[in-house]
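Write out the bound-state structure for ME8.
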Amino acid sequence: MKTFYITTPIYYVNRFPHLGHLYTMMMADCVARYKRQRGLEVFFLTGTDEHGINIERAAARDGRTPEEQADYVVSYFKKMTAEFGLDTEHGGYDIFMRTTYPFHEEGVQELWRRAARSRTPKGREAIYKGFYEGWFCAPCAEYKTEDEYKKPEHAGDPPLCLVHDTPLDRVAEESYFFRLSDYGEALLALYESRTDFIRPEARRNEVISFVRGGLQDLSISRLKSSVSWGIPVPDDPAHTMYVWFDALSNYITAIGYGNDERERVVGFEKFWPALHLLGKDILRFHAVYWPSFLMAAGIEQPRAIIAHGMWLDQNGRRMSKTLGNTVELDVLRKHFTVDAVRYFCLREIVFGQDGKFWYEALVDRTNSDLASGLGNLLSRTLTMISRYCDGRVPSSQISEDRYLVAKRAGVDPDPQSLSSALEHARDQFILNFEEFAFSRALDNVWAIIARVDKMISDAKPWELAKDESQRQTLNAILYRGAETLRWLAVLLYPAMPETARKIFGQLGINYDPAKIDPAQLQWGTLEAGTQIGKVEPIFPRIDKAKTMAEIRKESERGAHATEADAVQGAPTAAQTRPEPPMKGATEAEMVAGASQPSPEGVTSMIEIGDFMRIDLRVGQILTAERVPKSDKLLRFTVDVGEENPRQILAGIAEYYEPEKLIGRKIIIVANLKPRKLRGFESQGMVLAASIGEEGKPVLAGFVEDVPNGAKLK
Ligand code: ME8
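---
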């Protein structure tokens, strides 16, 4: 059996996943399903990139070991893949690769050794020891040249990364180098001989001009004393491998390179070379560095490198957790089906180009293309089959003696023109899919939906049903509708697997659309007499105004909840510019009960609406610790029933031992503007009674058990 290997990038574990990560995974999942449907044996890899200074820092900031940090974020990635049907159980990825797997370390070291033994195309050692001096961006995990950073405002400060706007690290130390400068010509020859190696064309041209501009040798290790969280350089453990050398290698170590056991289980020999799918942000690493490492080690080049565009926010900025402008996955999942999100991502932007994300557009597409388009075609066809044909797929035959009556009703007795249109659309669909032109492939499907919808409307089955002489015409029309839907479900399976299966279920087909190769579809295979299933709307219409109002509210809350969570790579206290002092904000104020002198009585009345504006919620303390250099403040992470726990500070350190509070249910004000105290952002306020003269705080809580996130009203 022919094999096919597809990869997504492996994601950093210093941030929680967002729409961008989901997007690449959904696209890869779609290709993997398509290839499986075409009869190939597919291996689909996704996973996490867990080493390096950035992860080490994120972990330290949050009081975790790097291993704990990785496990913590991986659990969120796994939650995302399960909820969006991308994991193995849902027919998605075959491996969730982690660079902390021991077999990976073995494989990377083997790769390094082979590269180190090799000679460059110019006959020199591919890896040599030298001294690196320059600037390094930890979030990019990349050394920056002068045109890749911004000069600081104040002399003496470090320059800033153009991507992240965060200060760069000065590096001046002994380092191993990869002699990239010797590989320029070999790379250009590779791009020249394999014109579809880097896609799309515009990206290929960018890479070519970058390489033509001249390549510099690449520092591929750091002293262990500077970066300890990583894979040691073989035979020189004082050095830690550069995280990109480690990360890129995962694509081969995952399937067995350098490890016999993995080779037996998966098979490097069997699956390599891979098709790498990634965002254009990391194209250079995949299209320049990775092919050079492979050349040095004498390994075959990847099948192709496909770079997609980036999701932008409404202001045109790239969506990223660092900028706090991401689409929250729990909001997305709550209001839309997985298939609606997949469809939107495939159809809305031309693959390869950037696109702005608008919830409004997602609602509109769901309502128009899915509810009114595909969903309506299915429900009208099946409802009429129930009504006029006792719920059984009717025969498609129109006997010759009925040709004339059919024609009189405006119906072509021969299904050929429809079946040819479907075959043509199918062929176009396949061509487009092979080219990653998903949007165009879906256009092909929706053109058929429009055509068949019109065919039904023109034939007016409800009129035909009144005329017994048109019985065969009525049956043929309904059969054509149902058979078209069978075809569409097979074509749509890679894009919308759940929907395809639902369509099959409602048509009464008891085999899996995943198992039908679209190229083998034959008109007329749907058997007359098939008992159709229960007819239900597959895409109920969304109430736009109501949903948008809810989304706005939830997105705001989500943004507050995630903005400064240390795990998401918020700058360290030292990197954060000091906030102007908050008027009147004291540490004690961080507990509501302690923020006011205790009132003797109610001083002024408020409207119920005023009260409703305060979002009070049940939270559970997950971690609690004292804030350094503060007698009063405790820092908590609190589960408020959202995807990510919140960081909340409270001025109760004089009265409570932090360890004793872990697990305790509390009440928090969830929609208070975040504020920063002692360098930490508090994303909510804990409620407490204020007792006696000194205002001793007593935390509010519950006698009965209550779920985290429950609202108080
Ligand atoms: O770069 N739009 O990991 P990462 C579309 N660990 N896709 C986006 C996106 C956006 N706004 N934001 C992120 C790394 N992505 C390295 C990779 S591979 C050997 C090592 C997606 O967590 C897109 O696929 O920063 C992008 O390339 C990737 O996430 C970057 O993920």
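---
Residues 9-12, 20-21, 23-24, 49, 247-248, 278-279, 281-282, 310-311, 318-320 surround ME8 (CB under 6 Å).
Confidence is low (pLDDT under 50) at residues 562-604.
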